[in-house]
Amino acid sequence: KGIDKEFYLLFSIFDENDSWYLNKNIEAFTGDPSKVDEKDPDFMESNKMHAVNGYLYGNLPGLAMCKNDKVSWHLIGLGSHYDMHGVHFQGNTIDLRGTTRDGLALFPHLSGTALMQPDRVGTFKVVCRTFDHFVGGMKHLYEVSGCRSTTRAQQQHGAIRLYYISAEEVEWDYASNKSSAPKIYNISSYEERCAARSQLLPEEGELSAAQRVVSVLCRKAALITGILYLNLGPLLHAEVGDSVLIVFKNKASRPYSISAHGIEE
User: Fold this and answer.
1) Which domain of life is it from (predicted)?
2) Which one of the listed residues 66, 128, 147, 194 is annotated catalytic?
3) In angstroms, rounded to a whole number, what is the distance separating the alpha carbons of residues 134 and 52?
4) Residue 147 among the catalytic residues
5) Mean pLDDT of the region 32-42
6) Label partner for 77 (CA 20 to 30 A): which of 98, 109, 207, 213?
7) Of 235, 231, 254, 255, nearest to 246 (Cα)?
8) pTM of the complete model beyond 0.70
């Protein structure tokens, strides 16, 4: 009741190596069936179809709706332990059990229903973000059309907020003073135990191989304890209806990226 469109999406990996017609397909679609090794890992992987409703690579038809429609997405997982899917909706957000987000986890033999009221016109992706599944074809498109005209009162006008974010590599002791850790987390202090043990060790130049391992592990344990105090940041402020423009610069030595969750991207 109160739903304009309903869609049912079945996410599953169909293993055609178990098909009754495997041998017939080999005879019909290979140049020399005698050279086909059914146990070859690459051949077996090529027969695993990463599909949504049986369709791959954007060929799933019928995912069309109007702007501001109330849409119900019924998502179903089926298969083996490999069928753990991270379903992602591009362009519009979904409501799942009272939370606003752009994706959800879907496990085999489980299902879920997400509600969407798209407020952007265009063609967007609905995909599984599990890497092997995405590459294997578990990615499709849904289309939002401007079927009804929007009144001036319905249009939202907000500010454009510009933020600059960079990724930098900095050596940082997150908690140089961890004396309160045993009281808060009911754990023994790594630093105290390591300090007591270090008094029993000889000088650095006289350490044996095993003793050097103990020394390194103690330093790593102290760093792990410090991670308990790590906070997220930076905090970006915006209001409903605003547009947020983020300029991201990577100053690190490895690739990094940023992704917005729970809002339009």
Assistant:
1) Eukaryota
2) 128
3) 11
4) no
5) 83
6) 98
7) 235
8) no
